[in-house]
Each structure stands twice: as structure tokens, then as C-alpha cells.
Amino acid sequence: MKQLLLVLLWLVLCSGQPALADSAAIRTGAEQPERYLPLLAGKKVGLLVNQTSRVGEQHLVDFLLQQQVQVVGIFAPEHGFRGDYDAGARVGDSRDPRTGLPIWSMYGASKKPDLSLLQQLDLVIFDIQDVGVRYYTYISSMHYMMEAAAAAGVAMLILDRPNPNGAYLDGPVLDLKFQSFVGMHPIPLLHGMTVGELALMIKGEQWIANAEKLQLTVIPNANYQRDLPYELPIPPSPNLPNAQAVRLYPSLGFFEATALSVGRGTPFPFQVLGYDQFASDEFSFVPVSTPGAALNPPLKDKKVYGEDLRQVSTDGLTLSYLMRWQQLFASHAKVMFTAPDFMDKLAGTDQLRLQIERGDSEPQIRDSWQSALQQFRLQRQPYLLYPE
């Protein structure tokens, strides 16, 4: 199976154009219709998409309908088809007022698509902008769709997009004992792969049931390499509104399991840290209800004090924020990790939380996951579509 995948990947790479140094020249999978429209001719198509699924300025759904593709329905992930649901908010089935197409939730009573819906289709397209962090749930929805497509005998097409954190391979590799919707695969927190590469790995490593039955096609990005800086043209979710939030998200996402605010309910989510009972700095802010982004944010309507990170230079995964705040909480005899089980799911292990609570140094913590990182680097190699 792996030898076959290597041959297929070699053919894909050889058929593409050489990578350029200018990120403006990048063309996403969706922006190369000449490569995928022939695959859709005469097919009944479903789409797992959201507000980031664009062909230039046009939504992929509208573009495909304009091209006379037979679109049957839309599957909606966390945050909904239009990206206007709060994190964790249940997404219901509905109908798109623009196109009249049914919208089927993949973030409601179940996070798995109903097989009866897939049996209406010949092919499912996944086209969603990811941020390259394991606990960001779009890749979990992709996993469930791949598994359902394999069970239903439906082909799957991934329109690839760049990973804005693609230059980094860092963090603990998930221990399957801590598997959840915020971490389904034994990959590092920052895995350095695009969704197309990850889909190939999920199939190739048989991380889904009936992996060998899934007919999977990936349309790679053109002129892309993983170390190119790439700023997302559309926010991927309500609380990642800009490039700084996307860069800080690998480090600040852990604070969702703590007593602190990460700025949900402010104009700068995932760009600040604060607490209402003591301060690490003089900066202050007040989280408020912001429907669609943070209806009931942590520390709502309280003045909190902490750190303004909007202008800091950040690079991959930074542990110093967690370590500094843990020391501050400990000095006040307070517990920082108020949701330890959730922290362990986010980290993919209980070791990171225990190391931070114990006061281990950053080099000690980082050393503890280097062996697994190197093993993963080798394991992912057959599935890479772009230069390292």
C-alpha cells in the first residue's frame, strides 16, 4: 500500500509546477478547476465546506453550480457553513437561502455524516482552510467524512490549501489513550502538513476503517512549499480573525483548559491572556458577549489583567506563557488547569500538564517529545506533496 502511494505521489509532484519563492503565486487546489472539473462530470456531488472555500472571490458552491456541477448538498463542520457559529456551538441542519441546497450538520447531535446522505452521492469534496494545529477540529471532520465515504463506497476529493503553520513540526505526539474530537490522530500538535497530505496519511496508515476501500484524490496547491509565509485571505473561524491569532493559536489554545481568558469576547481573541484576581502585567480588558464569536466567554463582563500579545513576534509553539502563568497561579495557591482532562486531550497526553505543574524546565519538556517527533518525521515522509 505504501509503495503504491509513493508512486502516486511521485506522479502528482512530477505533473505540478516548480515551487516559487513568492507566496502570492500560490494557487490552491480550488483555484485549479482544470484539474478537478473533469472528475465531477456526471457525478452527484456533496461538499464539506465553509466560508473559506473560495475560488478567487467566489464561493466554491456557487462556482460549481455555475459550472453545471450537480451539487446535491452541503455538509457543515464546527462554526457552520458560513463560519458564524461560536466554538462548540451546536450546528443544526438547515437550507442555504442563496442556493436552496440542504445543509447537513457534522457538528450537531453527531459529528459523523449519516450514511443515508452519502448514499445519495457519487463523490464528496473537502475544501476547508486549516491552521495546522492538531486540536483544530476541521481535520477531525475530514477524518469522519473519509471513514463514512469508505463505508458508503463514495469517492473523496480533497482540494488542498496551504498550512499557515506549515514550517513547524513541534509538540507532543498524541497518545491514543487521549484520543478525542480535538485530537484523533497520533501526530504532533504542529504536524507541518496540509490537509491533503494529512488525508493521504490517514488513508495510508489506515487510521480509518476500510481505508483500502476509499477512492481518494488530492488536488495539490501549485507553487507552494511549506516554509512560505501564508496569510489566510478569510478568517478560518470567528476567534481566529487575523494572522497573529493563527500564529499564537498553537501556544494559547491550551489556555482553554485553564481559568484564564484568551480574549474570547474581545476584538483580539487568541492575542491576549488575562485573569481577574491577579495580574502578570498592567494590560487589562473585559470579555463581553459577542454572538457568533463568544456568547458566554470565560470571565465574561469582568475586568481581567494580563498580557497583550498582539505585537509580539511568535514562532511555532511557545511554552513560556503556560509556564509563567503556572508559576503565578502557584504563588497564589491557585489551580490554573481547571479542566485537566480537557488539557490532556488538547495536549494528546497528560505529561505536558504534569511537567508544567511540576515545574520542569522548557528544555526538559521539549526533550521528552523529540524521539516521537523524529519517528513521525520519517512516518509522514511518503505522504508529503511539497518540499520540506
The gist of it:
This protein has 388 residues and is an alpha/beta fold. The chain has helices spanning 2-15, 33-40, 60-66, 115-118, 138-152, 195-204, 243-252, 320-331, 340-347, 351-358, 362-367, 370-380, and strands at 44-49, 54-55, 58-59, 70-76, 94-95, 102-105, 123-127, 155-159, 170-173, 188-190, 216-219, 272-275, 283-285, 304-308. The chain contains 12 helices and 14 strands.
Radius of gyration: 21 Å
Count of helices? 12
Strand content: 5-15%
Strand order of the largest sheet: 5-6-4-1-7-8-11
Query: What is the H level of CATH, i.e. the homologous superfamily of the largest domain?
Result: Uncharacterised protein PF07075, DUF1343
Assigned CATH class of the largest domain: Alpha Beta
Shape: globular
SSE sequence, one letter per element: HHEEEHEEEHEHEEEHEHEEEHHHHH
The oligomerization state is single chain
Might you state the CATH topology name of the largest domain?
A: Rossmann fold
Q: Give the end-to-end Cα distance, rounded to a whole number of Å.
A: 23 Å
- Annotated CATH architecture of the largest domain: 3-Layer(aba) Sandwich
Largest sheet: 7 strands, mixed
Q: What's the β-strand tally?
A: 14
- What structural class results from the helix and strand content? alpha/beta
Contiguous low-pLDDT stretches (5 residues minimum) are 1-22
